Amino acid sequence: MNRHEPREAPRRAASSPPPAFPLAFAALAVSAGVIWVAWAVLLHLHRVLLANGLEQRWMDGLLVGVGLLPLLLLIPVVRSFIYAAKARAALTGSDLAAARVQTAEAREWAQYAIGYAVATVLVFLGIQFLLANGGAVASTFFKLELIRSSFGLVLEAFWKNVWMFCVAEVFILIWGLIIAVARMIPGRAGQPIRFLAIVYTDAFRGLPTIISIYLIALGLPLANVPWVKDWSPEWLAILALTVSYGAYVAEVYRAGLDSIHPSQWSAARSLGLSFGQTLRFVIIPQAVRRIIPPLLNDFIALQKDTALVNVVGVIDGFNQAKIIASNRFNLSAVTTVALLFMLITIPQTRLVDRLLETEKRRIRA
Amino acid sequence: MSFLEIRNVHKHYGDIEVLRGTNLSVEQHQVVCLIGPSGCGKSTLLRCINGLETIQSGEICLDGDRISGPGVDLNALRREVGIVFQSFNLFPHMSVLHNVTLAPLQVLKMPRAEAEERAMTLLKRIGLEHKAKAFPDQLSGGQQQRVAIVRALAMGPRLLLLDEITSALDPELVSEVLNIVRDLAAEGMTMLLATHEMGFAKEVASKVCFLYQGVVHEEGPPEQIFGDPHEDRTRAFLSSIIEAGRL
Ligand SMILES: Nc1ncnc2c1ncn2[C@@H]1O[C@H](COP(=O)(O)OP(=O)(O)OP(=O)(O)O)[C@@H](O)[C@H]1O
Ligand SMILES: [Mg+2]
């Protein structure tokens, strides 16, 4: 810069952009490496298929098709080189502004190629992992024949999970609200109730769900608790899940109700609305929108936790799959139930993200 | 005995003593303005009158009935005493009409047709009948405050408390809200209002009370308080207001 000439106004010299070619070459090298890895993995896969007598014409076609995909990485690489060349031309013509633009483009395309190359190589390494031990990994988890033959049984047992979490969710919604309102009851008369509600939520939020299920679903019949002792293990498990998740959901409700500005309470109470009317007409309707995303999150956790009921002997999807797995020394049925869980939870996870996104946009507006 | 009597009221939040023996009276059809520096307890006093805060000692009487302390039917009290706050008054998830009719429907158990008819009459008075179906976030701040006043009026209160209802508004919206208060004053509505709008207080008030550190330091007709304040503190407060260009 111009520090050596103190009289001059300090003015930054227009600097030439960083060179674009090194990054383009790096992108080329990375992409080439990834293509090599991909083809090596596909060759391996081909050999495993041959060894297992699964060789078929359409599979070869598929393999070649998949092998061509990594070649797409070369498109951004070529673009990067084109822009890098343009940048060099602009620089020799000493058009600095144009050189900067072209360089930025060249670097952007090179980075794009590298990003996709990394993702591609991870996918192919994953395939390679499944092929390890001559395909033993793959067949332990994904033995198609077993998945097909056990699917009906697993699906039927999985319905028990669905049924249990649907029933539990209804009870949890009600029970959680009761606890949340109990924690908010105003005045001195409400104090002991508030205290009990706090003890309850703290206790069950601190307790692992699996232990709650164990204690409630095994313990109540063991202790010969009247009425409850005759319940089926399914209903006892639902009771345990309700008691456990009710504590979480009560907190979700409470946070939602707390998030409503206190002036809304004042405004409603000052109009003569009672505590209950204020909750019902003013606070809850406003809180619902903020409650739904965290509530759904808790329900997703609950749905997954229905797999824990196998500890008390309920034949749910997971338990059924485990039985099949131990009979056949193969985990493919467990894979089935894992996929079923993902099938129902992933859409909900996406929905939660969408809701949170719209809520964020609404607040910013 | 006055319509509203506040006698020796004490109120503290934990260690903070906000009201320290406040005395104040409001006659029927009077408009009383509360002025005073920020934090002197204006909002607290109004909230105590409406039963939104409990007082520790002293008493508040409305039309001869004690309305403070244990055993008071707060929901009944709040039918008699309406309050409008600085902001966040309206229920954002309800239309204007629903905001206004909620309390008459749920608290007074008024038939829906009657409640809506009365609400529309009130909205017409403030020129907002065409906004009946709108939601609060579709209204300007001034319109929202006007609806909030109407919502309090829909309960037919005998006393209206207004807590700095214009101080969250853009200056050009203040007058439309004050016009309504002016109309109400002309109709003989009994009002107690905390305000920073000294010009307005001067114009509508029957009596001005200067609240300082939780006690009424000086009170009198507006000409006297603004023209010839007796107390040093009142004078200091008013001159700071004049400096700020608010009088
Ligand atoms: N809920 C509360 N908890 C604790 N302190 C409070 C609470 N509400 C008000 N205070 C305190 O009481 C004092 C009086 O508050 P108040 O809102 O009545 O003042 P104000 O005269 O209305 O002031 P402003 O003109 O700023 O509105 C303040 O010092 C405030 O910090
Ligand atoms: Mg205030």
Q: What are the secondary-structure elements of chain A, in order, as H or E?
A: HHHHHHHHHHHH
Structural class of chain B: alpha/beta
Give the fraction of residues assigned to helices of chain B.
Answer: 25-40%
Order of helices and strands of chain B: EEEHEEHEHHHEHEHEEHH
Q: Mind summarizing the main beta sheet of chain A? A: none
At CATH level 2, the architecture of the largest domain in chain A is: Orthogonal Bundle
For the termini of chain A, the CA-CA separation is 45 Å
- Uncertain segments of chain B are none
Radius of gyration of chain B: 18 Å
**CATH fold-level name of the domain at 4-90 and 159-243 in chain B:** Rossmann fold
Q: What is the averaged pLDDT score of chain B?
A: 89
The CATH homologous superfamily name of the largest domain in chain A equals MetI-like
Query: How is the main sheet of chain B built?
Result: 6 strands, mixed
How many distinct beta strands of chain A?
A: 0
Description:
The complex is a heterodimer of chains A (365) and B (247). Chain A is mainly alpha-helical. Chain A has helices spanning 21-51, 57-68, 74-92, 96-141, 144-184, 191-206, 209-222, 233-258, 262-270, 275-305, 317-328, 332-364. The model of chain A has no long low-confidence stretch (mean pLDDT 88). Chain A is flat and about 85 Å long. In chain A, helix 3 runs antiparallel to helix 4 (96-141). Chain B has a domain at 4-90 and 159-243: Rossmann fold. Chain B has nine helices and ten strands. In chain B, the strands form two sheets. Chain B has a six-stranded mixed beta sheet, sandwiched between helices. A four-stranded antiparallel beta sheet of chain B has the order 2-1-4-5, covered by helices on one side. In chain B, helix 3 packs across helix 4 (112-125), helix 3 runs parallel beside helix 5 and helix 5 packs parallel to helix 6 (171-187). The model of chain B has no long low-confidence stretch (mean pLDDT 89). Adenosine-5'-triphosphate is lined by residues 13, 16, 18, 38-44, 164 of chain B. The site of magnesium ion has 4 residues of chain B, from helix 1.
